[in-house]
């Protein structure tokens, strides 16, 4: 254990962990994505993670914490016996190879693990989520309540024996007794939320901000404990937008799940397809042709601009400036014009396909984009004068909601929120995917990590995205837009009418969907709001066995209590605006 | 009392209410113009009758009082808001002596008093609604309006000194040579800011503070009771604009054009300026607003009183 504390640069993170486990590893597993998976016993988990936390310095992030219901899985060669598996995904921001998934096997009856909230504060919500959706208990968790489903829910939705859709249940009826019970569960009790009713001097006022409030950007509830207009404590309550996107992944075929991903971060459009199809392609071993890669990157960057423009406008709106949002939505409309010309859809094109994209670019696409590339920078300069240099706007955002790089890493903050603290980290540079390694762009950073810096980083990212798009337009390679591979969707059709083998294959692939070989793969992208990760497990079927969506907004919202203590209500609104979250991205 | 005086008394509030209603449409069209969009343009020529449509709709809405509200005060609050604004207009000197009591010798004090009473509308609405958002709005309103009243009164003292009278007629008469906006530019600036704060318009619309408080003090109001707050706000804009016109822009005075046109032009320009402010500025935080008031505006208005007094004394002694 001791050498874990001294940084041994020559050894990678998985090696360091495996060498110094007191009882040794239960097993190692290699996934299609090349990231080591270490199986360890529940007893070893906390000591290992605690040692890692102290040694591996401030750059080790708990990227994700989730679980797998293993009870229906057939392809588990070499993996320890388990009914449930809890997965801890650790990622170092410094070195790309320092990334590891730690898995802990658990039994079927009353699965329990020690909580790691004291090591990584962002484990809090993740553990609550695992408790809520899988029924795995975490000892010593400060507040292990349901997080995504209502408090009165019975069962744990992501278990394989839980129904996936309403039609699998008897017709619903609301009895009076049941209604009273539901109403009772809605009653607000400050002590259950970890808040006191009064201090020594005064009674607190509890303000229920949301779930329908103009400034919470969707259905999001924050319970505020107020003394005057000053916030003593804030407790976010999420789950109002939960649609079971992960559960749907286990039902839809690999191909038909693509449109569902569009709706996760509904401002990100095809940006959501990106990690999903990349993960499926990794599982299936498909190499995407260069033109398709470039088209994907170009569209993803267009959506980044669209999303950032919404952020910019609504942020100004949140501090009371009425006009910018109209100008920025006008620009966004132009982006959508381009996207519609290419994809035929605006917000949710579902345009990426396993192995490439749906279609080649239409005639005249270049002209549309070039005109936009010319116009937007001029308008951005105007917005700088109107918003960023406005004294009232600066007074409202400078020094508000600041956090340090260390705090950001502890809380799993990625994207502009991390860069605003001065840390130059972007997943597109950290682990370039698609063709980002061939494109030139800078990573904008801030210095103070406050609201103003977060906004400034967003604005500069729009400019960098324009730069990337310009390179894409200038260097768009020729060639196919879909890989020539039997598992791509929709499958190649050219020879279906010539030989029976291809016809059968095509028929099955279209009606049932492709059968993806068993395995595990994870794909991450730098989405509009931070790192978006899809972890897919295939059990050799036509649908995913487990779809895990790690979204940036979920991690970022957890920080709200930390940022909001001691500030005014109006500041909280500025902070909410600057975090740039989408509730569908939080609740999935 | 002559028939014409009676007619004026009846007509003035009616015209004002009509103007305030039309102003809701004007504001939306102007905002649309500045924000690259249309605004209401469907009902009547250019959407002019939008205000009528809105008014009709709001009149026919259920007059609902939330069960948890303090009924009496809840009903009284919008009425106070409406009344104080309308009463203030009595002393505004309209061209051709069309005003109701524009020669009142303490006209300016009367207006300040009415504006002071106007605070009650907002505070009582916030309190009687018995809702947290409304309470916070009412609380903000009380602090904001009471403190801005102080500088509003002080900033006007310069004008009073120069005109030597509280009567608005006399003040207009005193601007025959030079509009007070030039010698009283400091006072003008402070009065403008205080005026915006009094009408709680953006950027000083903290009592409503949509992004924080939903609708602030009138969160629980609906139907015509909300409509009264709404119309009172627009009447308030007209009031402050016509006050600025009277006190600093020479009232109905002006070359070539008839006085009525001048008065309308100046007041209309000020109203448009109010709307432009709303289109362009963000909202400061509550404590920043108070700091601006007490730390910047109060010393400035005192300085203005002192400087004006000194200059007048010197000039008199020469």
TrEMBL record, chain A:
NADH:ubiquinone oxidoreductase 30kDa subunit domain: from which residue to which, for each copy?
Answer: 39-167
What keywords appear on the UniProt entry? Cell membrane, Membrane, Multifunctional enzyme, NAD, Oxidoreductase, Quinone, Translocase, Transport, Ubiquinone
Q: Which GO terms describe its molecular function?
A: oxidoreductase activity
Q: How would you describe this protein's topology in the membrane?
A: Peripheral membrane protein
Q: Where is this region: NADH dehydrogenase I subunit D?
A: 203-588
Q: Which segments cross the bilayer?
A: none
Task: Quote the InterPro entries the UniProt record gives.
Answer: NADH_DH_suCD, NADH_Q_OxRdtase_suD, NADH_quin_OxRdtase_su_C/D-like, NADH_UbQ_OxRdtase_30kDa_su, NADH_UbQ_OxRdtase_49kDa_CS, NADH_UbQ_OxRdtase_CS, NDH1_su_D/H, NiFe-Hase_large
Q: Give the start-end ranges of region NADH dehydrogenase I subunit C.
A: 1-179
Does the keyword section mention Transmembrane helix?
Answer: no
Q: NADH-quinone oxidoreductase subunit D domain location, by residue?
A: 318-588
User: According to its UniProt record, where is this protein mainly located?
Assistant: membrane
Could you say which EC number(s) this protein's record lists? Answer: 7.1.1.-
> Cellular location of this protein?
Cell inner membrane; Cell membrane
Q: Which reaction does it catalyse?
A: a quinone + NADH + 5 H(+)(in) = a quinol + NAD(+) + 4 H(+)(out)
Coiled-coil segments on the chain, per record? none
Q: What class of enzyme is it?
A: translocase
Entry's family note: In the C-terminal section; belongs to the complex I 49 kDa subunit family. In the N-terminal section; belongs to the complex I 30 kDa subunit family.
Q: How does it assemble?
A: NDH-1 is composed of 13 different subunits. Subunits NuoB, CD, E, F, and G constitute the peripheral sector of the complex.
**Free-text function comment from the UniProt entry:** NDH-1 shuttles electrons from NADH, via FMN and iron-sulfur (Fe-S) centers, to quinones in the respiratory chain. The immediate electron acceptor for the enzyme in this species is believed to be ubiquinone. Couples the redox reaction to proton translocation (for every two electrons transferred, four hydrogen ions are translocated across the cytoplasmic membrane), and thus conserves the redox energy in a proton gradient.
Q: Which NCBIfam families match?
A: NuoD, PRK06075.1, PRK11742.1
Know the name of this protein?
A: NADH-quinone oxidoreductase subunit C/D
Which species does the entry assign this protein to?
Acetobacter conturbans
Task: Give the taxonomic lineage as stored in the record.
Answer: Bacteria, Pseudomonadati, Pseudomonadota, Alphaproteobacteria, Acetobacterales
UniProtKB/TrEMBL annotation, chain B:
Keyword presence, NAD: yes
The portions of this protein that span the membrane are: 73-94, 106-126, 146-166, 178-197, 226-249, 261-280, 292-314
- Identify this protein by name: NADH-quinone oxidoreductase subunit H
Give the matching Pfam families. Answer: NADHdh
Which EC number(s) are documented for this chain? 7.1.1.-
Q: Which reaction does it catalyse?
A: a quinone + NADH + 5 H(+)(in) = a quinol + NAD(+) + 4 H(+)(out)
Native species: Acetobacter conturbans
Q: Does the keyword NADP apply?
A: no
């Amino acid at each position: 254990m001791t050498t874990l504390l001294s940084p041994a640069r020559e050894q990678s993170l998985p090696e360091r962990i495996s060498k110094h486990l007191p009882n040794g590893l239960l097993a190692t597993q290699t996934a299609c994505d090349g990231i080591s998976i270490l199986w360890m016993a529940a007893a070893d988990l906390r000591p290992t993670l605690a040692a890692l936390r102290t040694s591996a310095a401030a750059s080790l992030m708990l990227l994700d914490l989730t679980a797998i219901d293993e009870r229906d899985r057939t392809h588990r060669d070499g993996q320890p016996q388990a009914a449930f598996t809890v997965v801890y995904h650790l990622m170092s921001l410094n070195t790309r190879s320092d990334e590891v998934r730690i898995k802990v096997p658990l039994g079927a009856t009353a699965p329990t693990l020690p909580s790691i909230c004291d090591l990584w504060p962002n484990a809090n919500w993740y553990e609550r989520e695992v408790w809520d959706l899988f029924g795995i208990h975490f000892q010593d968790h400060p507040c292990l309540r349901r997080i995504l489903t209502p408090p009165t829910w019975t069962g744990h939705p992501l278990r394989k024996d839980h129904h996936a859709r309403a039609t699998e249940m008897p017709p619903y009826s609301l009895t009076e007794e049941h209604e009273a019970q539901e109403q009772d569960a809605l009653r607000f009790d400050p002590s259950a939320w970890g808040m006191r009713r009064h201090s020594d001097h005064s009674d607190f006022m509890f303000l229920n901000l949301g779930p329908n409030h103009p400034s919470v950007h969707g259905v999001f509830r924050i319970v505020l404990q107020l003394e005057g207009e000053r916030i003593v404590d804030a407790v976010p309550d999420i789950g109002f937008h939960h649609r079971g996107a992960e559960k749907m992944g286990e039902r839809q075929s690999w191909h038909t799940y693509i449109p569902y991903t569009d709706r996760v971060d509904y401002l990100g459009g095809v940006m959501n397809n990106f990690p999903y199809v990349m993960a499926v392609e990794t599982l299936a071993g498909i190499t995407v042709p260069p033109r398709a890669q470039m088209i994907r990157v170009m569209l993803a960057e267009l959506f980044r601009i669209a999303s950032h423009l919404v952020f910019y406008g609504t942020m100004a709106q949140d501090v009371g400036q009425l006009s910018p949002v109209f100008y920025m939505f006008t620009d966004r409309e132009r982006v959508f014009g381009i996207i519609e010309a290419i994809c035929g859809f605006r917000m949710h094109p579902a345009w990426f396909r396993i192995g490439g994209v749906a279609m080649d670019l239409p005639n005249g696409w270049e002209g549309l984009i070039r005109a936009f590339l010319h116009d937007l920078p001029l308008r951005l300069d105007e917005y700088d004068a109107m918003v960023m240099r406005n004294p009232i706007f600066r007074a409202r955002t400078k020094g508000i909601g600041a956090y340090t790089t260390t705090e950001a890493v502890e809380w799993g903050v990625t994207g502009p929120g991390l860069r605003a603290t001065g840390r130059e980290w972007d997943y597109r540079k950290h682990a370039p995917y698609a063709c980002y390694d061939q494109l030139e762009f800078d990573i904008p950073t801030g210095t103070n990590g406050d609201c103003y810096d977060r906004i400034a980083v967003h604005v500069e990212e729009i400019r960098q995205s324009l730069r990337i798009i310009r390179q894409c337009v200038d260097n768009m390679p020729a060639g196919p837009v879909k890989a020539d591979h039997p598992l791509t969707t929709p499958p190649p059709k050219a020879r279906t009418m010539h030989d029976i083998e291809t016809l059968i294959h095509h028929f099955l692939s279209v009606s049932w969907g492709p059968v993806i070989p068993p395995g595990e793969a994870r794909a991450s992208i730098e989405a509009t709001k931070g790192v978006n990760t899809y972890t897919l497990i295939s059990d050799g079927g036509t649908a995913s066995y487990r779809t895990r969506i790690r979204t940036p907004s979920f991690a970022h919202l957890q920080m709200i209590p930390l940022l909001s203590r001691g500030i005014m209500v109006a500041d909280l609104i500025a902070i909410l605006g600057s975090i740039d979250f989408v509730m569908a991205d939080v609740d999935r | 009392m002559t028939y014409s005086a009676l007619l004026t008394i009846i007509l003035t509030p009616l015209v004002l209410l009509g103007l305030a209603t039309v102003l809701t449409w004007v504001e939306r069209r102007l905002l649309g113009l500045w924000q690259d969009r249309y605004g209401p343009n469907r009902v009547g020529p250019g959407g002019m009758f939008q205000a009528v449509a809105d008014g009709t709709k709001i009149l026919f809405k259920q007059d609902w009082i939330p069960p948890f509200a303090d009924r009496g005060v809840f009903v009284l609050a919008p009425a106070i808001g409406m009344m104080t604004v309308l009463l203030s207009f009595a002393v505004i000197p309209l061209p051709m002596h069309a005003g109701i009591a524009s020669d009142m010798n303490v006209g300016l004090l009367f207006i300040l008093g009415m504006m002071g009473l106007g605070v009650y509308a907002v505070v009582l609405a916030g309190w009687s609604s018995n809702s947290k958002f409304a309470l916070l709005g009412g609380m903000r309103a009380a602090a904001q309006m009471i403190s801005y009243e102080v500088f509003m009164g002080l900033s006007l003292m310069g004008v009073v000194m120069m005109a030597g009278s509280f009567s608005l007629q006399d003040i207009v008469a005193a601007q025959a040579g030079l509009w007070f906006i030039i010698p009283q530019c400091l006072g003008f600036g402070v009065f403008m800011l205080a005026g915006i704060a009094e009408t709680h318009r953006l950027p000083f619309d903290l009592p409503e503070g949509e992004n924080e408080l939903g609708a602030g003090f009138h969160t629980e109001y609906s139907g015509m009771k909300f409509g009264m707050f709404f119309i009172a706000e627009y009447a308030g804009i007209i009031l402050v604009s016509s006050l600025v016109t009277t006190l600093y822009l020479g009232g109905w005075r002006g070359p070539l054009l008839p006085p009525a046109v001048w008065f309308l032009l100046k007041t209309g320009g000020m109203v448009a300026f109010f709307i432009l402010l709303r289109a362009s500025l963000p909202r400061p935080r509550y404590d920043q607003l108070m700091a601006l008031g007490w730390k910047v505006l109060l010393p400035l208005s005192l300085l203005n009183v002192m400087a004006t007094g000194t200059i007048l004394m010197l000039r008199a002694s020469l």
